[in-house]
Amino acid sequence: MGNRIIINEEDVFGTKFFGVIPYMDGTWPVDFEVSLEGAKRAVVEPDFDLSDFGPLSLCFEHCILAHIVATTLIPRKGSLSNISTRDVFVLYCLLRKYRINWAVWFKEYMLESVEDPNASSSLPYGLLISHILVDRLIDLSSFTLIVINATYDSCTFSSMGYVQVENKWIKNDSVKARDEAFKPSKISAESASFLIQDNDKHKTRLLAVERDLETLHDAVEKVFHLQKETSTDVGKLQISMTRIKQEGIATINKLTLLRVESALQTMTWQSLFRPHTPVSLVVWSVRTTPFMARS
Hints:
Structural class: mainly alpha
Order of helices and strands: HHHHHHHEEHHHH
Number of strands: 2
Radius of gyration: 35 Å
Distance between the termini: 118 Å
Helix content: 40-55%
Mean pLDDT: 73
Largest sheet: 2 strands, antiparallel
Shape: elongated
């Protein structure tokens, strides 16, 4: 009779996961080649913190592919702002270029959807089912035709948080700022030394401003004393008021200059901690309003 030969889909078509599909039981397969954390690490951008794992942690191509998995290949309900364990499994297999018998996977997923007790549940792959029914010569003219206009275009990519720069889609500024917020800043010993020196300079200038304010206060006290004296002439009072005005202008200008220098210094340090921010752009973003005295 000869030898008995047993072949499967993987032997014939080179497809992966013959028989029971690992991810269908809702848990990560124990005997899979990588763990769940390892699969996440394989699909995210390099050096990304897995504690904030989601669509924004992926590069543009991987993010679009994950969106296709969650909306078309294995369509699911719920928010698309996160990536499910099942999405990670399918995305990992696609990126590893494993050949998959999608007919079996779709069938298993439809059987799973049928068992969903939720009253709003529906059978996935409506377009595929309609195509099969038409191919079987089943008349569908009594049903309303639904035209699918959804497509992946520039509007779709923009809504997903990307902007096109030099024919490349990259994360826009708001997304970059959100990503940078999770990255701790590292200050070197040399930078810390410079920062301490700047703080000492600011303390010295604040003491000088404090002395100027004391001088201004003394001048105001003199005016009050002059007003109490009945023999004081108008000329002395005008001279005192002019002196107060000059000292007030000088003090306010010093305060304004100190605020501007402090703002510029703060923005310069921020640009050092975030090298992608040009210092020149930061400097010109500060507006200074000169103090104008009334005569």
